[in-house]
Design brief:
The complex is a heterodimer. By secondary structure, chain A is mainly alpha-helical. Chain A is built from 15 helices and two strands. Chain B contains ten helices and ten strands. In chain B, helix 6 runs parallel beside helix 7. The chains are: A mainly alpha, B alpha/beta. The interface between A and B is large, with 42 and 45 residues. Chain B: Pfam families: ABC_tran (PF00005). Chain B: Keywords: ATP-binding, Nucleotide-binding. Chain B: InterPro entries: AAA+_ATPase, ABC_carbohydrate_import_ATPase, ABC_transporter-like_ATP-bd, P-loop_NTPase. Chain B: This is Sugar ABC transporter ATP-binding protein.
Chain lengths: 354, 260
């Protein structure tokens, strides 16, 4: 035992119990702040329930029907899957502007391989998934090894992939009927089935399963914890022995792979394969879903379940306003407000320790 | 000294652009000792430590662990070799829990199918070991082992970082300013822990500005000045003011200390 200095002698009598404090006197607001800090998916879930309730009251029973609610799910399946990819990247304090075009390009590759070149459909799908992963790997290499800012890298690859897509496809749309005749497997995720009046597609199921799998990976595996650590404080993660470059490579590659998977789902939903699909829409909606879902753009915070709720919020708001017959611009306006509100709440929750 | 040093460094040089952080620095750590490293701000103490712990690659010079030359490319390699470091900035991830932080980079997985195929973390085991280590350190004010590190006070965070090193270090433990942010009770615990680790036969490198702490626990004191080892003194032969005078250049170090 070290020779204790005089004033340290009383320490032998010190309390050895784990500290516990009575909770009273803590304001309700503070408690809410702490609850939200430890449960990041709660905010989007509350907003989702509120928006369903508000539109339900405004529209009435028509909105509450299982048909309408499941239709919303069908509409958000692609955005939800892209949002899941975006979530991984944003958790590392990055952003991937290119996932929308990676999706479209992968869809075109899948369609051409299966329909134009007549390859067996599973091989065509595998090639498409591979192309998406390669695009993601390119992003990852530029971010992790060249140390370029993710925003600039993916702005660049967005243009590169989009141009490649148009040059390669000569802007030819592959028709629905051709896909159905030659490669029906590409339409797999469009297959729907009824549960009562609810209509679900395999695409919806795929989105939910994908989010649940990613939730498990992010929260219950070492790799998932590393993703959070890299986004939180890359220097600390490195000193803790995490191979930050490999984690970043894997995250961007996985985002590319998921974008290619979204391509397969989108073929099922749209039927035809168009190289000029509304890329910007998908891209921004996926980022919107992620941000509204409470994933912090500064990295390391948020739950992927929040992204799912965020995508649902966007779906509910656009469906609700449609049914109310509102000008579509109201949807855009409301989405903008939700984004700013979500970032504001994120900043407030971060102050929990300050 | 008759025994061979466990960890040695010779002629380390590290430059950051025009700034020279290490200028032909030497370093010796003997088995089972507590070596304090003191020096003015900017003397290169942290660079020396980072070179030994694999966080930076020196431009020149060689490092030997147990006689074998080593060149760590990452902190992970140093950790695998048994050198554990508590950095000044602690290297904790603020948003992750205490248990997750303590096991960052060497997580425990569940046994059987869940662990092998689904790679599921064994949270209960990690939390239990983390709690045991914190209790050993006397950090009883941490109520919830699952709480995020950013919700802890500065001292508690330091305690978590020290507990992490103590739990895993097998050959050398390096502590960079381990008591800087700690209260009286926690500082005492850390010093006791340092002596406890020494009793287990593991040598410790202690970087500190706290002279009473240094003189209390150190077996030898390495005085760093202007990027190199100025001298090594025995705390029994010199006073704290001597040490401060050497490290600030107010007094020339004695001849016999230079040789050590």
């Amino acid at each position: 035992m070290a020779q204790a200095q005089e004033f340290e002698k009383v320490l032998s009598d010190s309390d050895t119990n784990v500290a516990a404090f009575e909770d009273h006197g803590v304001s309700v607001l503070k408690r809410i702040q702490h609850f939200l800090h430890s449960t990041p998916a709660a905010v989007p879930l509350i907003v989702l329930i509120l928006s369903i309730a508000i539109f339900g009251i405004a529209i009435g029973g028509r909105f509450f029907s299982s048909y309408t609610l499941t239709l919303i799910l069908q509409q958000i399946a692609i955005v939800g899957i892209l949002g899941a990819a975006q979530t991984l990247v944003i958790l590392t304090a990055g952003i991937d502007l290119s996932i929308g075009v990676i999706m479209v390009f992968s869809a075109v590759v899948m369609g051409n391989c299966a329909v134009t070149y007549g390859l067996p459909t599973p091989i065509a799908v595998a090639i498409g998934l591979g192309v998406g992963t390669l695009c993601g790997l390119l992003n990852g290499a530029l971010v992790a090894y060249m140390k370029l800012p993710p925003f600039i890298v993916t702005l660049g690859t967005w243009n590169i992939v989009m141009a490649t897509n148009f040059i390669y496809s000569a802007n030819q749309t592959i028709r629905d009927a051709d896909v159905a005749a030659q490669a029906p497997l590409l339409h797999l995720f469009g297959v729907n089935f009824k549960v009562g009046t609810a209509v679900l597609t395999l695409g919806v199921i795929a989105m939910v399963v994908l989010v649940l799998v990613l939730w498990y990976v992010l929260n219950h595996t070492a790799w998932g914890r590393h993703v959070y650590a890299v986004g939180d404080d890359p220097e600390a993660a490195k000193l803790s022995g995490i191979q930050t470059k490999k984690v970043l490579m894997a995250v961007y590659a996985l985002a590319g792979l998921i974008a290619a998977f979204a391509a397969w789902v989108s073929i099922g939903r749209n039927g035809s394969i168009s190289p000029s699909a509304a890329v910007t829409d998908y891209n921004l909606q996926a980022i919107t879903a992620t941000v509204i879902g409470g994933i912090s753009l500064f990295g390391g915070r948020g739950s992927i379940l929040g992204t799912l709720f965020g995508a649902m919020i966007v779906g509910v708001v656009s469906m609700g306003l449609n049914m109310l017959g509102a000008d579509p611009q109201w949807k855009v306006l409301l989405t903008g407000m939700l984004i700013i509100g979500a970032v504001g709440i994120d900043q407030w929750i971060r102050k929990v320790s300050g | 000294m008759a025994t061979q040093p466990l960890l040695t460094a010779r002629g380390l040089v590290k430059r950051y652009g025009r700034v020279t952080a290490l200028n032909q620095a030497d370093f010796d750590l003997y088995p089972g000792e507590i070596l304090a490293v003191i020096g003015d701000n900017g003397a290169g103490k942290s660079s020396l430590i980072k070179a030994i712990s694999g966080a930076v690659n020196p431009d020149e010079g060689e490092i030997r662990l147990e006689g074998k030359q080593i060149a760590f490319k990452s902190p992970m390699e140093a950790r695998d070799a048994g050198i554990e470091t508590v950095y000044q900035n602690l290297a904790l991830s603020p948003a992750l829990s205490i248990a997750d932080n303590m096991f960052l980079g060497r997580e425990i997985r569940k046994q059987g199918f869940m662990g092998q195929w689904l790679r599921m973390l064994d949270r209960p085991a990690m939390e239990k070991r983390a709690r045991d280590k914190l209790t050993e350190l006397g950090l009883m004010t941490i109520q919830n082992i699952g709480q995020a590190v950013e919700t802890l006070s500065g001292g508690q965070r330091q305690g978590v970082a020290v507990a992490r090193a103590a739990a895993f270090g097998s050959k050398v433990i390096i502590l960079d300013e381990p008591t800087a942010a700690l209260g009286v009770k926690e500082s005492r615990r850390v010093l006791e822990l340092i002596l406890d680790v020494k009793r287990r036969g593991i040598p410790i490198v202690l970087i500190s500005h706290n002279m009473p702490h240094v003189f209390e626990v150190a077996d030898r004191i390495h005085i760093h000045r202007l990027g190199r080892r100025l001298c090594v003194i025995n705390p029994k032969d010199y006073t704290m003011s001597d040490a401060v005078a050497f490290m600030t250049g107010a007094k020339a170090p004695p001849e016999e200390a230079l040789a050590a």
